[in-house]
Amino acid sequence: MPTPTTRQSLGDQFPGILTAAQDGGEWAVAVLYRWLHPALIGYLRGRVGADAEDLASETWLAVARRLTSFSGDETAFRSWVFTIAHRRVVDHHRATARRPRLRSLTRAEGDDHEGPVEVRASDDPAGEVLAALAGGDAVRRIVALLPKEQADIVLLRVVAGLPVEDVAAITGRRPGTVGVLQHRALRRLADRLADAPRVPGTTPR
Amino acid sequence: MDRPPIARGMRPDRPPLDDDSAARMLQGLVHADDAPPGYGALAGLLATAARPAAVDEDAAAATVSAMVEAIRKGAPVPQTSRRKSMLTKLLAGKALAVVGVVALTASGAAAATGSLPTPVQSAVSGAASHVGVDLPKPNHGNSAGHRQDGKHRPGGDTASTTGGADDNGPSSNHGQTVSQTAHTTPDGPGKGAVVCAVASGGKCQAGADHGKGKASGDDSSSSTTATPGSIQTGDDHNDDHATTPTTGSIQTGGDHNDDHATTPTTGSVQTGGDESGGSAGSGKDGSGSSGTDGSGSQH
Q1: pLDDT: is A45 or B214 the higher one?
Q2: Residue B269 in contact with residue B299, Cβ under 8 Å?
Q3: B49 contacts in A (CB within 8 Å)?
Q4: Could you tell me what percentage of chain A is helix, strand and coil, using 3-state DSSP and rounding each to the nearest 5?
Q5: Counting CB atoms within 10 angstroms of each CB, which of A143, B121, B195, B208 has the fewest?
Q6: What is this structure's pTM?
Q7: What DSSP string describes B177-188?
Q8: Partner-chain contact A60 B67, CB within 8 Å
Q9: pLDDT of B111
Q10: Which of B45, B46, B73 is the best mutation test for A, with the most CBs of A within 10 A?
Q11: For chain A, what is the largest distance between any 2 Cα atoms, rounded to a whole number of angstroms?
Q12: How far off is chain B from A147, nearest CA to CA, in Å?
């Protein structure tokens, strides 16, 4: 069975894979893992930085413990996994908020993000983005340029690939509010990236 | 573009971003070259962010193995198990409470009716009396089981026997003595008084009016039946049933407690014939055991 990529849909295969995974089939668990883990780890890296691997493992184990009780299609499954991950992130931030930590003195202008991700502010952010070849760098760039709540929504929309309704459910907001926030985020990003030169090698999927 | 701008306050050289373009860029589907003017960098950034992150194969294998183990173990969710535990404890507590209430109620009812075993009844009665609760004592109750120590006499036109414990103490032989007296005493006007005297230990005043009822062994017309609960009749009653309510108790009015005024049962005297002993009886028909306080009976 081919390994699906992040945005690849399992389609009609999903119900059978889910059933096999619920029965403890290792191959089916591996398919689900490889299907969503790239998006999951990308989201977590943007939210918790170096602790992303640990939180990803916790998220997957939580999924495994509750897998037999899950029912739904692949969209619901994706949303469910990211709901668990989001709660882990919230708990992680609560825990780290109680611990003293160093704050970056080079925070970008207008960046009120208080997460552990540290990104150098630059006078040419667009150039940095275009120079970045890894998705992780782009994620960190987004987090550095956006307020926390806007960055969370953009990551859930872009990295996790969730629709507005699911993002609203995960973050506890109304879909209309999520729409407003994401547009504000895009405008802020566009303002920061304006006049940046394009890189020929950057190709969207 | 007919759609209204969704972002205001943007730079003058950048047109507003429409909903469709925004949605496509959020999905990482817009190439930088295909983005609206002024949004090329944003489109490139979002498209790059949407790329799949690299997966650590070692970590993937370890995580999948752990997931499979967790699934196969069927590890319960802590919250669920906690809820079950709480529910179990709650039900167990309620069950214990119900059992306790039932046990207390049954014990109380048994004590109130004097149905407990003699030692227990005595102890409970004594303990309850200290707190002002009047419970029957073992020998004062109407329970037949506490009073029956005689023998059943089948046959004859009498019923049965009831001896019983006297208020004055154990009287396992008292009834027998009275019975023998009743049998051996010749019939006559004084028989009742003799039997009465034996039964009452010399305190009997046969024929005297104690104001509590007719009590005369001679008075064959005064048949009273006042021995509730303490009489066990035989299984071969005669039609006339003359002896049914008898037995009773020869009572010496003044010696009894007030609370036994209506149940004067001490020293049973049995009427009826051909009894073979062992029970208090008055012997023959018409001889009538007598007793004061209206406990005697006659045909």
Answers
A1: A45
A2: no
A3: 42, 135, 138-139, 141-142, 155, 158-159
A4: 65, 0, 35
A5: B208
A6: 0.48
A7: HHHHHHHHSPSS
A8: yes
A9: 67
A10: B45
A11: 54
A12: 16
Determine phi and psi for B213, rounding to 5 degrees: 140, 175
Q: Quick one: what percent of chain A has pLDDT higher than 70? A: 73
Taking contacts as CB-CB distances below 8 angstroms, the residues of chain B near A139 are 49
pLDDT band at B270 (very low <50, low <70, confident <90, very high): very low
Each residue's pLDDT tens digit, B77-95: 444 444 555 666 666 677 7
Contacts of B109 (CB under 8 A, 6+ apart): B115
Tell me the sheet residues that pair with B292: B251
Task: Determine contact: A142 vs chain B, CB below 8 A.
Answer: yes
Q: What ipTM was reported for this prediction?
A: 0.74
**Which range among A123-127, A193-197, B259-263 shows the weakest confidence by mean pLDDT?**
B259-263
Residue B10 tokens read as 């943007």
Judged by CB atoms closer than 8 Å, whether chains meet at B71 and A30 is answered as no
**C-alpha–C-alpha distance, residues A130 and A109, integer Å:** 20
pLDDT band at B3 (very low <50, low <70, confident <90, very high): very low
From chain A, the residues in CB contact with B5 under 8 A are none
CB contact A21 to B (< 8 Å): yes
Q: Which helix (H) or strand (E) holds A16?
A: helix A13-22
Q: Per the CB < 8 Å rule, is A186 touching B32?
A: no
Distance from A64 to chain B by nearest Cα, in Å? Answer: 5
Least confident of A91-100, A186-195, B167-176: B167-176
CB contact under 8 A, B27 and A191: no
In this complex, the residue of B14, B34, B75 whose CB is nearest that of residue A190 is B14
3 state SS of B143: coil
How far A23 CA sits from the closest chain B CA (Å)? 7
Q: Could you tell me the two tokens for A103?
A: 């704050």
Q: What is the pLDDT of residue B197?
A: 78
Q: What is the DSSP string of B207-245?
A: T---SSS---SS-TT------TTS----S---SS-TTTT
Q: State the pLDDT at residue B265.
A: 35
